[in-house]
Amino acid sequence: xxxxxxxxxxMISASAALGADELVLVKxxxxxxxxxxxxxxxxxxxxxxxxxxxxFWISRYEVTQKEYSALMxxxxxxxxxxxxPVENVTWLEAVKFCNAKSESEGLTPVYRIDGAKVTWDxxxxxxxxxxxxxxxxxxxxxxxxxxxxxHSIGAEEANFYGHYPYEIEENYFSQHKLSTKPGIYRSETxxxxxxxxxxxxxxxxxxxxxxWCWDIYGDYPSGLSTNPTGPESGxxxxxxxxxxxxxxxxxxxxxxxxxPQERRLYNVGFRVARGAVGTGLVASQAVQExxxxxxxxxxxxxxxxxxxQGVAYEIQKQTGAEVFEIVPEKPxxxxxxxxxxxxxxxxxxxxxxxxxxKINLDDYDVIILGYPNWWASIxxxxxxxxxxxxxxxxxxxxxxxxxxxxxxxxxxxxxxLAPKAVITEGLSVHYSGGGSLKEDIARWLKNAE
Length: 449
Prior knowledge:
Elements: H1 2-8, E1 11-13, E2 23-26, E3 29-33, E4 49-53, E5 56-59, H2 65-72, H3 91-104, E6 111-114, E7 117-121, H4 132-140, E8 210-216, E9 225-226, E10 233-234, E11 237-240, E12 257-259, E13 268-269, E14 273-274, E15 281-286, E16 297-301, H5 307-319, E17 322-325, E18 327-328, H6 336-349, E19 355-356, E20 366-372, H7 380-387, E21 395-402, H8 410-417, E22 422-423, E23 427-430, H9 437-448
Parallel strand pairs: 4-9, 8-13, 10-15, 16-17, 16-20, 20-21, 21-22, 21-23
Antiparallel strand pairs: 1-2, 2-5, 3-4, 5-14, 6-7, 7-15, 8-11, 11-12, 18-19
Helix pairs in contact: 5-9
């Protein structure tokens, strides 16, 4: 094992033909992918398993807006700057960029794109997205701790929601116990390479933007796996690393985020890789579940302070849709400090609180789903609701109230719990929405038509 770790951390600069400042050669080997059951805030989809990888090249940096614009002729990013990472880019646009970059350098394009179906030529020498296993191997750089720094990451070491370092959820009122104290929250992306690299010389593997990987989201294979490329089909693609608005727990090396491959996300970009992993073709198709033709909608929401409820009823005014409130059988405390503890407790346990009442979901085609952003994810009553019904063929329109983190990783939570639903662009509302709420909702509803 010691020899393997020494081999892993060996970093060799790319040859001039590959671009000495762009790619790093990562030597292959074996590692444990996923997280141990003892890792705090681990998710059930992080089961540890042994993976063997061949050598591959991976970019030192996330793809910048300058690089993306030069090849693709446009810049979809929310936060503008030539040296900032491109974001708000779909998975499909990322693979098209890889092909364009290959062609611009006289290399063989890796991908064949036929609508939602993308085929990967394993022997092609062009640019591609890293696999999920390659990404985690590169991020870890020989470590087995939650972060590749081997200690709890801080705002001076990565761009994230620095107010919320690792394990703050259970130590919010006893922050002296934290190994890393709260720091700055920049609320936007920063130039790539603004923080120290990991042991392989790779920058921003934690934070700034999450990074699209090749793989379709699904359960890990059991047992030993060699150069895994993920499931052949599914409805979501994986992105890794967390972004500028993520809590530290969702930047762990093992954390897995997922979203539809045609979804634009203001905190997700990508980095490129190169290197053959074998011969033959790998075809994968990640498609949205087909929605029903009807448009009967219901607004379903959970609220605590009343902010989400106010948004729900403004949506009801503008749509005329029915409204259903999610109410736990055992209510959360009315005391703010206590409810913070209760919310983090339920998230850690992945609790499923029992709910009052039910709806006949067969009567509706569109579920306008609202909730407060609790600890960068959904409140657990929302998880109970999503697991209580069959959402195949349904459209989910998410909206949330938040104190600064927008959706956090709540959209990933919904995507995982309702994999057969079509999830539209969401609406995030700062607290109660202020004077622009009516117009913001109207614009959101119009874009969803």
